[in-house]
Structure formats: C-alpha cells, structure tokens
Amino acid sequence: MNTTALTLTPTTRALAWCLHLLVVALLTLAAVRAVVGGRPHAGVTVAVAMLCGLVYSAGPLLPRVRGSRRAAALWLAAVGLVWLALLVLSADAVWVAFPLYFLQLHLLSRRAGLVTVAVTAIAAIAGFAAHQDLFSPAMAIGPALGAAVAVAVVWGYQALYRESEHRRRLIEELTATRAELAAAQHTAGVLAERERLAHEIHDTLAQGLTSIQLLLRAAERVLPERPEAAARHMDQARQTALDNLAEARRFVAALAPPALDGATLADALRRLCDTTGAHHRLTVRFRLDGTPAPLPTTHEVALLRIAQSALANTVHHAHATAMDVTLDYTGGQVALEVVDDGTGFDAAGLPDPGPEGGGFGLTAMRARAHALGGTLALASVPGHGTTLTARLPLTPSAATEPEARL
To answer: Which residues are paired to 134 by β-bridges?
Structure first.
C-alpha cells in the first residue's frame, strides 16, 4: 500500500455533510426496519448499525485518514468489515454500499478505488441474494448501476477540478507575466526618457553652456583693451543663457523647441545659422533646395537638433571659417547637409562617449535619425573639412513614428 501523503481532490463542506447524513440515514433505516419488522436478531442489527456509524464517524475526526493512503485504506477496511457484518444481518444494509463507493473512489488511488468499488458491489449483490434465497440478474442492476454512477460522478468531478486548477495556474502565470511585462515596459519607458533627456541636454544645455564659456573667455581676453567688445560678448552670453533656459523648460515639458514656434523648419535653421555666425567668427550660409513639404513635428525637432549639434561641434572643434547648411526636399525624402572647411578628423578615431571625453553628439544624432527610419552619414578627412548628412523619409512609417518621442 502506498504510504505517501494523500492528495485529495477538495470537496465542498456541503457535499461532505450530505454524504455523512446519507450514511447515517441509511444505517438508521436498516436499524429501524429491523426493529419495526420484528426481524430475527433485531437487537444485534441495531448494535452493529450503531457500531458501523461509530467507526464511520472516526474517519472525519482523524487527520491521518485525510493525509495518508495507508490510514485511509485501514479506515475503509474497518468500515467495510462492519458493513459486511450488518449486511449479513439485514438486507437493507445493501443501500449503504452507495455512499461507500464515493468514499473509496475519493480516498484511494484510481486503480485501488475502482477495484474496491467492484468488490463492494459484488458483496452487496451477493448479500442481497443470500437474504432472498435466490439470485436473478435484476438484483445486480441496483448495486452495479450505483457503482457506475459513483465512478462517473467522482472521476468527472476530479477531471473538472484538474481542469479548473490548470486554468487557475494559467491565470496566475498570466497575471505574473503581465506584471513582469508592465515592469519591463516601465523600465523601458524610464530608459527611453533618460535617453531623450540625455540627447536634449547634450544638444541644448551642454552646447549652450559651452558657448557661454567661450563667450566669457573671449570677453575676459578683450576686457582691458576693448571694453565695448567685452560687453558685446557678455550680451551674447546672456542671450545664449536665456535661449537655453527656454529650451530647458520646453524639453522638460516635452514640447517643441522655441525655434519652431510659429515658424517652419527652414526658418528655424536660417535663424540658427544667423545666430551662430553672429556669435562666433564664422561664416554660416543656409540654402533651401526643393519645395518644402509638411513634416511631422518629430522630424522637424530631430533635424533641428541634429543641426544644432553639428554646428556646435564645428564651432568648438573644427576651427572652421565657413559652413554651409542645406535643407533638401527632393527625392521623396528630406535631407540636412552640414559642410565645413575645418581641420577634419579621423572618423575611426572618435572617442567613446563619456563624461570626460564627450563623444555623445554623433551617437545622439545617429540615434535620432535611426529612430525615425532615416540615416546619418559622416565624411571627414584630416585637413579637408567635414560633411554630415542626415536623411529622413517624408512620410513616417507606423513602426518608427511612435518611437520618435524626442
């Protein structure tokens, strides 16, 4: 006999009490009929019926019966033996076999329960036939049909319970998966927002602070001899600080850059070129090719940020004297080209992005272009200037548009 822990299919309290009441009612029926009918050995029948009820009552009160197959089998064997004694005394005990079927199927393993139910049914048929002093096939119908019904009900209930448990586990897994997905989406959102802020800070605040530093250094150098030039540099630094303050407020609120308020992209780029040329010793020219087409705000913001970063890199690193900025609306796409006559550089020797070495500019520009389904190309030769070209499709694809939240 298997002595491992018994795993029972849970039943409701109402079903358990119905089974208990049925056993008590059937035992009482056998005892009452023995007394009322004046049958032989009526007193013994009543005593055995009471003993059967006591042995049966011990099962629900003993925890080991619900936790061990060996204990459950021993208890069922004890109930079965007393029931057989009652069956010998009274033919009415045959009806007690029906609740016993359910107990055996519920407490024993499937194979053992089926064998025990079959033995109980045979004993019930044989006992009833012995009391009738004859056997007919009709006598087997009741116990056999009861056994079949009990097997169908218990096994059906167990199958339904297993299916319910399977669905419950699936729901729990789905709930856990949804929670993990929500956490992953939250983390992805946080990382995306950090990347957005990093790009915005680099293209606006960092470049603006660098310009302010250069202007203040220039003012410091000319202050003793040319105070009017120093004052002009100070005014330009103050204006740059105001512009960057407006930029900071706008990108924190996830709004479009101030340069695009009430203006086209071409107008914003033209003003950027004029401002850069006025603040630095640099000739900056702007040219518009093709017929301007309406662009999504994300495209305009990306191109403006790329232009700001490209001009800032040229001013701070290229030592150029002239720049050409071209906005081209031909070929089913919009292209921004920034060309300078600076010292150029070796593209393969660019530093990795870091707080000390910089290097965020090109990475951020390339990320902006790729997020909108575009490309960014960089061509530079030491001593021969640099050309940067960003190309974006005029019509954003459904796959890239939601990602372009700059």
So the answer is: none
b/e per residue, 148-184, with b = 16+ CB within 10 A? eebbeebeebeeeeeeeeeeeeeeeeeeeeeeeeeee
Q: What is the strand order of the sheet 333-340 is part of?
A: 283-289, 322-328, 333-340, 386-393, 375-380
Q: In angstroms, what is the C-alpha Rg of the chain? A: 45
- The closest of 303, 325, 299 to 314, measured between CA atoms, is 325
Render pLDDT for 310-367 as a digit per residue (tens, 0 to 9).
888 888 888 889 999 999 998 889 999 999 998 888 776 665 555 444 456 788 888 8
Closest CA to 131 of 79, 76, 94, 169: 94
Residue 287's Cβ-count burial label (10 Å; 0-12, 13-18, 19+) is middle
Q: Which residues pair with 340 in a beta bridge?
A: 323, 386
Single-letter residue type at 179: A
First to last CA, the chain: 71
Tell me the per-residue pLDDT of 251-306, one tens digit each, with 9 for 90 and over. Answer: 666 555 666 666 788 998 998 898 888 877 789 999 999 888 888 888 888 898 89
- Inter-residue contact 24 to 60 (CB < 8 Å): no
380: left (phi over 0), alpha (psi -120 to 50) or beta: beta
Angle at 101 between CA 99 and CA 105, to 5 degrees: 125
